[in-house]
Amino acid sequence: MELKEIKKKTQTELHKMLAESRDKLRELKFKDANKQLKDVRSIRKLKAMIAQTLTVLNQQRSKDEKQPNDNNKVANK
User: Fold this and answer.
1) Residue 77: inside a domain, yes or no?
2) Number of domains the chain is built from
3) What range does the domain containing 58 cover?
4) Tens digit of pLDDT for each residue in 5-22?
């Protein structure tokens, strides 16, 4: 999944996708430990997707926190 697609999702969708990705990563790590995983690079790709998802979530959270403060400044004037 590309970063553009991740940015379009809502926070609830991102949290759900993050939980699923972490479960999948855990499964891949177990398979790798048991030498059952052929595409070891998939672990790296999944970690990158998790990092991108967390980055977008943090950006959305910081943007949401800034908006009420801006509205309060306007209302106080």
Assistant:
1) no
2) 1
3) 3-68
4) 999 999 999 999 999 999
